[in-house]
Amino acid sequence: MDLKLLIILALILALPVCIFFVRRYYLRQLRNEVTRAQKSEQIKSVFLANVSHALRTPLNSIIGFSDIILKEKPGVLKEEQLTEMVTHINHNGHQLLYFISQLLELSSFEGSMLTFTMIEVNLAELMASYRREALRDASPNVSIYIRTTLSPHCKATLDTNLMHQLIMHLLQNAVLHTKEGSITMTYERERKGMKVTIIDTGDGVPQKLQENIFSILQHEDSLTLANQTSGLGLSICKAIVDALNGEIGLSSEEGKGTTVWVWIPCHMRDMTKGI
Q1: How many CB atoms are closer than 10 A to CB 213?
Q2: Other CB atoms closer than 10 Å to residue 125's CB: what's the count?
Q3: Which helix (H) or strand (E) holds 137?
Q4: What is the pLDDT of residues 264-273, one digit of tens each?
Q5: What is the distance between the alpha carbons of residues 140 and 79, in angstroms, rounded to a whole number?
Q6: Terminus-to-terminus CA distance in the chain, angstroms?
Q7: E strands along 60-163, which residues?
Q8: Radius of gyration of the chain (CA)
Q9: Which chemical reaction does it catalyze (predicted)?
């Protein structure tokens, strides 16, 4: 048989096989897209349900206590009762404002192009300022330490606004869950950047929450008022780290404490060594 005919025959026979594999590939891609879309819709639904619950809880308290105050005739409520109700309203109002602020902060990292303002700063001074800020909210029974092997003259080129958001969310999370004991912040040069680690002796994170601790989609109780910092706060940290092309991780043992670390690529130089 002529060679050309053999080639044509081979191509004709191979064509259905090629079509089969191409069709199977695109069907698999289509199924993956459908699965991703369904998962995305599920994430959105669960997140919105959790947010709705987290918003309604303080609002119900604010409206409930204010209704009682408005409906009662003057003099019926004792001063202690009135003070307690106003305190509840004030507390829930602050919690609501904090939660909404976190939502807005998280949304600023979603679907937008961030612009970075990089400046060189002294790391010892920067970390000391974070410690002072965290101490204002910490329990009197909690000590906050800074540990490093770097020179006090070491400098790094960073976006200080994003760095402040990142480290303060981590410290606030540690402060919230540490009623007594210590919080230790370490910072070191690692690879071509800096690693910051926050170690606390607080109540720790339950094992079931650790896998998705940085995700906005967590367990049903992750967005309750008692857990807002570990809910959205750590999600914000993850968004910042991703924006900076960094890394973040957590290890925790319930009842013993939590360690959270972040690695951020940045230029560092030790002024005492000229490098």
Answers
A1: 22
A2: 10
A3: helix 123-137
A4: 999 999 877 6
A5: 30
A6: 76
A7: 118-122, 142-147, 154-159
A8: 27
A9: ATP + protein L-histidine = ADP + protein N-phospho-L-histidine
DSSP state letter for 66: H
Task: Say how many C-beta atoms besides its own lie within 10 A of residue 126's C-beta.
Answer: 18
Checking 33-39 for CB contacts under 8 A at 24+ apart, the result is none
* Same domain, residue pair 182 and 243: yes
Task: Write the DSSP string, 208-270.
Answer: HHHTTTTSS---TTTTSGGGHIIIIIHHHHHHHHHHTT-EEEEEEETTTEEEEEEEEE-EEEE
Residues 218 and 103 in one domain: no
Beta bridge partners of 144: 183
Residue with tokens 């970390």: 127
Contact 162, 244 (CB under 8 A): yes
**pTM for this entry:** 0.67
Give the tokens for residue 123: 């790391």
Given 113, 144, 173, the domain boundary residue is 113
pLDDT digits (tens, 9 = 90+) for 24-51: 666 776 676 666 666 556 556 656 666 6
Helix axes 234-243, 79-107, angle to 10 degrees: 20
Q: Which residue has the tokens 């400046």?
A: 119
Please indicate, yes or no, if residue 275 is contained in any of the structural domains: no
For 265, the token pair is 């690529």
* Domain carrying residue 147: 118-270
